[in-house]
Amino acid sequence: MNLPLHVVDGRFAARCSLQGNPDQGLLGVIDSGSTATCVDTQVCDRADLEFAGESGRVQCVHRGHREVVRSYFGHIDICGRTVHTRVYELDMGQERERAGVNAILGWDVLGDFKITLDKPSGTGSMELRTVA
Fold first, then answer.
1. Which of 40, 41, 119, 127 places its Cα 20 to 30 Å from the Cα of 50?
2. In the chain, what are the domains?
3. Where are the alpha helices (DSSP H) in the chain?
4. Burial class of residue 97, CB neighbours in 10 A (0-12, 13-18, 19+)
5. Residue 119 and residue 15: Cα distance in Å, rounded?
6. What is the per-residue pLDDT across 5-18, written as a single tens digit (0 to 9) for each?
7. How far apart are CA 113 and CA 23, in angstroms?
8. Tens digit of pLDDT for each residue in 32-54?
């Protein structure tokens, strides 16, 4: 399955969902520098996720977070694949209001995909890697 990526606010983003619920739709920025996936506080509140603990630091394209960040057990459904992971809660109010972005997808979610980005043309896609 091939999923086209969208350019949002100058960054590539993918449509996906949280907890397999289409009502919990996400527009997640592709962040090749982040090991963790982060989701906006409002989405986490609505999703009723199981609390997993707190972290003292999270690095992502959004910014470095040195404050305590809450994490939850959850799963992200994207491009025909369900990834069970910790979801880190971030206040993404500015991105959400300006561009509709409510998640940052890190390597915990992206690792099983081949991702193609063509910045000059503003096109990109991702597809699940097949094991030969």
1. 127
2. 2-127 (2.40.70.10)
3. 41-47, 93-99, 107-110
4. exposed
5. 18
6. 999 988 999 999 99
7. 24
8. 888 889 899 889 888 888 999 98
